[in-house]
Amino acid sequence: MSDDSHPSRQEAHGIRHARELEGHLSWLDSFTGAALGVLAVASGIYTYLGVSSLLDDNGALSFFAAMSYSVAVSVGIFVFWSYLMRLLPAVRTMAARVGLFFAMLLGSLAIIAMSSWLNAAALAGAAAVEQHMATTVQTYQRSLEQANAAAVSAQGLERDVARVRQSFEDLSEQEATGQLSGFAGEGAVFRLLQQKSDELSALEEQIESYDPLVAQEFERGNAILSRMRALTVEPGPVEPRSVTFSEEAVQLANVITRLRQLSVAPLVRRAANDLSASVVLPELDGSDAETREGQSATIDSVLTVLGQRAETLRQAAEAVIAMPQPPDTTYTPISTADAVILYAGNFVPSWAGAISIDLLPAVLVLIVAITQSAIRTARGPADTADSMSLAELRSAVRVLREVEGMDRAAPATERPAAETPASDRPAEEPRRPLSAVETNRPAE
């Protein structure tokens, strides 16, 4: 035999390396199926918990529905990864590898869609609902503060009204001494100034009456917010807390609406419009034409000042009305699965764990595929006989000897008839003549 028939030193080293990797794969394959089964069962358990949280009924039908779904998920995950664990490392063409890899990617997406999000709901569903409640509390708090700020700013218009009222009272005092029209006493100009002063005084008293109402509603809203915060962090099942939280949210929404209604800015705006538009001019009571003419000129001046004061007051009311109003906030109870999806960014570790328990076998598939490729590369073009181990050669030799022994141990009775001795042949019986019936001829 020439030297070309023997493997080279490098080929022998590759064969030993390939045989070592095959031994490792054989040992790992002994418990890989059990490991896949454990992962599939664990995923099925969390899937059952996630499905149970979505079902409203807790009866037997819901139990069997959730159980059947979780069992189907466990079986599907186990079969899917078992297929890929066997087939993907075994294929050799690039087209087959790409096709199976695409199938693995598509199956992974399907597993995430049917199982992983439910696993995340089971892992972080209650925390996600609590996060939803906490976010709602913050939204309600901002709305309450905006509504209270608008109401308090409207109450601040009382100072503007008081300033305008005080200016008319000062003018009326000046008119009483004759410093405006030159006619001392409580004449036509005095009565006009006093009329507008009384209107502004009534408006001021009405605004002041709203102060305790605004403070009371704001205090009530803060008390409701405190109870809602307590429900957010209170231990125990989240579902009954969510129901109580909804009731508190309805009451808080009513408080916010009440605060918006207690804003006196629209009232002040209407009063400012009426201040200059609805003027009852008193009858001029001067004793002579010159006095009446002076009263008329003074009334015109008063009306001009009245229009200016009314415009200033109206602009102040418009500024309060233009303040941003609190948005309409409504708490909507959601399920644990919806909460996990809505606040997925806040529960990245839970999502990572839920997906990893389903897609971890993908890493094992890639490891086996890379190892099988390394084995094929290490073997190279070596002959099958060169890659056989000593134990395999001994087994092959033993089988060959058994086959050869069976061929040599054939019985003598199987020899051909031509070689049988004449003495061993059975004696021939004497012939007898054939009858007419046997020869099909009539007897003569």
Automatic annotation (TrEMBL):
UniProt keyword terms in alphabetical order: Membrane, Transmembrane, Transmembrane helix
The keyword Transmembrane is annotated on this UniProt entry: yes
Biased composition (Low complexity): 408-421
Annotated signal sequence range: none
Region of interest (Disordered), residue spans: 404-444
Superkingdom in the source lineage: Bacteria
Keyword Magnesium on entry: no
Transmembrane segments annotated in the record for this chain: 25-49, 61-84, 96-118, 351-370
Protein name: DUF4407 domain-containing protein
Species, as recorded: Histidinibacterium aquaticum
